[in-house]
Amino acid sequence: RTVYVNGQYLPEGDAKVSIFDRAFLMADGVYEVTSVLDGKLIDFDGHLARLERSLSELDIQKPDCFDDLLEIHRELVRVNGITDGMVYLQVTRGAAEDRDFVFPDPEEVKPTVVLFTQSKPGLADSPASKKGIKVISIEDIRWGRRDIKTVQLLYPSMGKMMAKKAGADDAWMIEDGHVTEGTSNNAYIVKGDTIITRQLSNDILHGITRAAVLRFAREAQMKVEERHFTIDEAKDADEAFVTSASTFVMPVVQVDEAVLGDGTPGPVSKRLREIYLEESRKAAI
Ligand code: PLP
């Protein structure tokens, strides 16, 4: 596989990043994941805009290659022959001379930029999307700036492990009795014909897929409420689903012990998944 590191396309085995890189030492970096369907990028502009915001919130310099990122994504998709899969992009504050909590002088360090692809044949019709997934609820003990897409992913990883041990597929995180989001996705419930998802704030990541799905839902005259909801409401919902760049709209059929509806993906989730895939394929670049 060919990867991109700081201006160079290299075989993955030749790619190197310093051990002093602040993302390695302090999780001082941000990332984006963009899906590829039929060799084209889904919602690239949204991901680029969020990257710019994450960098600016953390005072990380925009890398020199920022304006070439579309071209770099496309080139990696091309050389690696990706039909369905994803492109991972990470930008870190860079490698300072020594380990120090204080940010290095931006004159002295350049951000590190790494991109690689992952091929996922059949990404848009995974068995999980047909069966739906089971989620457990866990406490949300992450930091207070979840709107910034940092590489600080230890607790989400632990959450996925807790889910796995419990025989589930993923975890929804709970703060003050309310669902914030999934470990790597935004969370939704459906009551009657209303789609409910938490309002945007620093408590959740502002999902690029979320923005698109809510837009498509409104265009299709579906009712949307952006408000927080409790885990009890979720257990009592008619349907539930999650959204992310790599899973699109993924039906949820069980929350803790509560089976939703008849335990199969509900009509609203299925319809939204279809609309999302159709519309985002049309807009892919
Ligand atoms: N919430 C969290 C915590 C995430 O990690 C992600 C994606 O990785 C999302 C939500 C979904 O965001 P997007 O739709 O932009 O992939």
Q: Overview of this structure, please?
A:
It is an enzyme of class 2 (transferase). It catalyses: L-leucine + 2-oxoglutarate = 4-methyl-2-oxopentanoate + L-glutamate; L-valine + 2-oxoglutarate = 3-methyl-2-oxobutanoate + L-glutamate; L-isoleucine + 2-oxoglutarate = (S)-3-methyl-2-oxopentanoate + L-glutamate. Strand 13 (239-244) and strand 14 form a beta hairpin. The chain has 285 residues and is α+β, with helices and mostly antiparallel strands. The chain folds into two domains: 2-124, D-amino Acid Aminotransferase, Chain A, domain 1; 127-283, D-amino Acid Aminotransferase, subunit A, domain 2 (D-amino Acid Aminotransferase, Chain A, domain 2, Alpha-Beta Barrel), CATH 3.20.10. It contains eight helices and 15 strands. It has helices spanning 22-26, 44-57, 69-79, 127-131, 154-165, 208-219, 231-235, 267-283, and strands at residues 2-5, 8-11, 29-37, 40-41, 85-92, 112-119, 133-139, 170-175, 178-182, 186-191, 194-197, 223-226, 239-244, 248-255, 258-259. Strands 7, 8, 9, 10, 11, 12, 13, 14 and 15 form a nine-stranded mixed sheet that branches. Strands 2-1-6-5-3-4 form a six-stranded antiparallel sheet. The structure holds pyridoxal-5'-phosphate. Pyridoxal-5'-phosphate binds next to helix 6 and strand 13.
Give the class from helix and strand content and strand pairing: alpha+beta
Mean pLDDT: 97
The CATH homologous superfamily name of the largest domain equals D-amino Acid Aminotransferase, subunit A, domain 2
How would you sum up the major sheet? 9 strands, mixed
Share of helix, binned: 25-40%
CATH class of the largest domain, please?
A: Alpha Beta
Envelope shape: globular
Distance between the termini: 22 Å
EC number: 2.6.1.42
Protein name: Probable branched-chain-amino-acid aminotransferase
InterPro entries: Aminotrans_IV (IPR001544), Aminotrans_IV_CS (IPR018300), Aminotransferase-like (IPR036038), BCAT-like_C (IPR043132), BCAT-like_N (IPR043131), Class-IV_PLP-Dep_Aminotrnsfr (IPR050571)
Pfam family, one: Aminotran_4
